[in-house]
Design a protein that fits this description.
By secondary structure, the protein is of the alpha+beta class. 43% of the residues lie in helices and 16% in strands. It contains two helices and four strands, in the order H-H-E-E-E-E. The protein has a four-stranded antiparallel β-sheet, covered by helices on one side. A hairpin with a 5-residue loop joins strand 3 and strand 4. The radius of gyration is 24 Å and the shape is elongated.
């Protein structure tokens, strides 16, 4: 009896079919993972901007330096990172106003790739996903996310 050396054609076809099935599963889930990763970067940048917002208010007593042009506090880098990962490539919206308690407040939000928005404000001290922050967090609004 001859010794068997190598693989048969059927064995090779089965292995190639299994690899093809696994590759197709990975390719289907990859775009969703990319969107989630971009949303995580936006959320992280907005949370960092909220920390800078608190620092600037504690230092200056107002939000006049809380804008995307502020290179000294690295807000311009954070705004650029948010724009790079947002679905419409826009910088985040930064707004100031008077909170319901009469004190000044500021908020920052950006659209997420999931269709929601991520918003952080000084008034509540929170950062979270919201359906539509435009009702309150805009220039002339109250500077809160409406949590």
């Amino acid at each position: 009896m001859k010794e068997k050396k190598g693989f048969t054609l059927i064995e090779l076809l089965v292995v190639i079919a299994i690899i093809g099935i696994l590759a197709s599963i990975v390719m289907v889930t990859f775009p969703g993972a990319t969107r989630k990763a971009k949303d995580a970067r936006i959320m992280s940048a907005i949370a960092q901007a909220r920390t800078i917002m608190v620092y600037l208010y504690d230092r200056d007593g107002d939000f006049s330096n809380f804008n995307c042009d502020n290179e000294a506090e690295n807000l311009d880098d954070l705004c650029g990172d948010i724009a790079k990962n947002s679905p419409d490539a826009s910088e985040p919206v930064i707004a100031t106003g008077t909170a319901p308690d009469g004190n000044p407040s500021a908020c920052i939000y950006s659209p997420l790739n999931s269709g929601d928005y991520y918003c952080a404000d000084y008034y509540s001290g929170k950062a979270d996903v919201v359906a539509d922050p435009t009702a309150t967090c805009f220039t002339g609004g109250d500077g809160t996310c409406g949590f």
